[in-house]
Amino acid sequence: MLLRLYLSVLALAVLATALSALPAGWKLLVLALCAVHAWWTLPRYVLLSDAAAWRGLRHDETGWQLWSRAHGWQPVQLRPDSLALPLAVVLRVRLPGAWRSRGLCIPFDAMGPAEHRRLRVRLKFSRRRWAAPE
Q: Distance (Å, rounded) from C-alpha 121 to C-alpha 118?
């Protein structure tokens, strides 16, 4: 689902740029920026083929953790602007020592319906969900 959504939005951006009244040089610049964005985003956030892409999520007594092939399990702090909806869970997390938050989208078809529901319930009702990792 996430791949279809990303490619649809990218196609709309390319179409809007091609049909706009911008000079040819600006059109090429915008199209190049779209290509660079797709080159950066697809392996890291959509296809999860990059070694640094987060591919696992767990919660235990030590808190929330994300897993990637490059870094293994890393403790993270959930941010209050995380969102749990039936179609997707959007996690906003901050790594220890980092100053900015990062986002992670987990669509409903990324896991079984019961597991996705359990994740949404845990995000909504768990105690200390915004606590920094220890």
A: 5
